[in-house]
Amino acid sequence: MSASNESGSVDERPVVWFDIDNTLYSASSRISHAMGERIHDPLDFDRQCDGSLPLEDMIKYDPAQRKLFEDIDRSKVRVWGLTNAYRPHAERVLRILKLDDLIDGLVYCDYQVKNFSCKPEPEFYQDAMKKAKLSDPSKCYFIDDNRGNIDGARAQGWARCVHFCEQGLEAMEGGRTKQIDNERAPGAKVDDEVKIVTTLEELRGVWPEIFKA
Ligand SMILES: [Mg+2]
């Protein structure tokens, strides 16, 4: 992984942003539960999670998933990770899934920075675009299992958003177990542009233009 096009000031190739946790692997792994049990002090988050979770036993490399990433046409788009996790955890997940060489860049939460930003805060998406040297939000593709994160991206004008929604499974968020659903924040306006998928394979049909012919 490396930041692409470090030398140039802009790179207007679209970016496909992938959330990592509970998106690149199923919530059925229950990693979020295991994380939730261990987080008491946010500053200890990475040491506690990355150092002690047996991720290798909880998620498995899936050749079909790797193929999906290989089939994305890199002459048309770039592929980045966009995660609220800290970098070592995100990189470890990508290594286990054997996707690390297929991700062009990674935007993560920096827990060492006071008042760090994260999804769904506007600055996080804006900083992500700066890091990718992309100025046009209509060139952003984005998939995330958290509908609030999708709404945050849509508010920034990210055009091609997909909600990865494993309806019926449970995930843990903010220390609470929650049934995965497509529930929106109260008062959120209808957004028919957001597609819903239950497997990443469905992206071939939702975003056919990013895949090799
Ligand atoms: Mg997630």
Could you name the key traits of this structure?
six-stranded parallel sheet; binds magnesium ion; SSM1_domain; Rossmann fold; 8 strands; 8 helices; 29% helix; two-stranded antiparallel sheet; HAD_sf; Pyrimidine 5-nucleotidase
Strand-helix topology:
Layout: E1 15-18, H1 31-38, H2 45-52, H3 55-58, H4 63-70, E2 78-82, H5 87-96, E3 105-107, H6 122-131, E4 140-144, H7 147-155, E5 160-164, E6 170-173, E7 176-179, E8 195-197, H8 203-206
Parallel strand pairs: 1-2, 1-4, 2-3, 4-5, 5-8
Antiparallel strand pairs: 6-7
Bound molecules: magnesium ion.
How would you portray this structure in words?
This protein is an alpha/beta fold and 213 residues long. It has one domain (15-210): Rossmann fold. Helices cover 29% and strands 15% of the residues. The chain has 8 helices and 8 strands. The chain has helices at residues 31-38, 45-52, 55-58, 63-70, 87-96, 122-131, 147-155, 203-206; strands spanning 15-18, 78-82, 105-107, 140-144, 160-164, 170-173, 176-179, 195-197. The chain has a 6-stranded parallel beta sheet with strand order 3-2-1-4-5-8, covered by helices on one side. Strands 6-7 form a two-stranded antiparallel sheet. The model has no long low-confidence stretch (mean pLDDT 89). Magnesium ion binds next to loops. Magnesium ion binds at residues 19, 21-23, 144-146.
